[in-house]
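Propose amino acids for all 177 sites.
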């Protein structure tokens, strides 16, 4: 078998391909060559665990209409989308913008939670502090019915069966309706 010499451009392309394989399979594959020591910006490494934060959402009308958060809480309880033992003060704290380590047990579907957060942020009813994403807040403050951290929600689609119900829940935060 004849040995082949690769150019620096070919080595870089090979590293790009291997890095893509690494990202897909979660393997650690490297090329031990001086020309291939840099990491390609085409395949940035994704964070495997969500960032830990105690930052919470800020409700846009917190000073003018705080009762809207309580209304949302009551409807989520009736729909059985949050656990029955969820304390109203804990739920309210989630929307004050103040640091907290509270956890809300979400008993609805992951699609419902993801879409609810998406709708509330897109309509500017809630926001997050700078440098903290909405999904980071969700990962740090919501758990499933078994008290385990929820899986990644940012890539979930719109729930077909409960789309209207989720949108109506989000609209409960709007004091103009």
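Proposal:
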């Amino acid at each position: 078998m004849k040995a082949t010499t690769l150019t620096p451009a070919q080595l870089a392309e090979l590293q790009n391909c291997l890095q893509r394989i690494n990202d897909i399979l979660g393997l650690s594959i490297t090329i031990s060559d001086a020309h291939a020591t840099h990491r390609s910006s085409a395949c940035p490494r994704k964070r495997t665990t969500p960032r830990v934060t105690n930052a919470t959402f800020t409700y846009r009308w917190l000073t003018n209409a705080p009762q809207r958060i309580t209304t949302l809480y009551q409807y989520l309880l009736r729909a059985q989308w949050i656990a029955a033992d969820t304390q109203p003060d804990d739920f309210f704290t989630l929307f004050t913008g103040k640091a907290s380590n509270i956890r809300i047990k979400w008993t609805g579907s992951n699609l419902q939670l993801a879409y609810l957060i998406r709708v509330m942020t897109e309509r500017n009813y809630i926001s997050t502090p700078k440098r903290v994403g909405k999904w980071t807040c969700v990962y740090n403050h919501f758990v499933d019915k078994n008290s385990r951290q929820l899986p990644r929600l940012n890539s979930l689609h719109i729930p077909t069966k409960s789309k209207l119900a989720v949108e109506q829940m989000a609209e409960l935060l709007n004091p103009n309706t």
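Residues 29-40 have pLDDT under 50 and may be disordered. Residues 14 and 63 are 57 Å apart (CA to CA).
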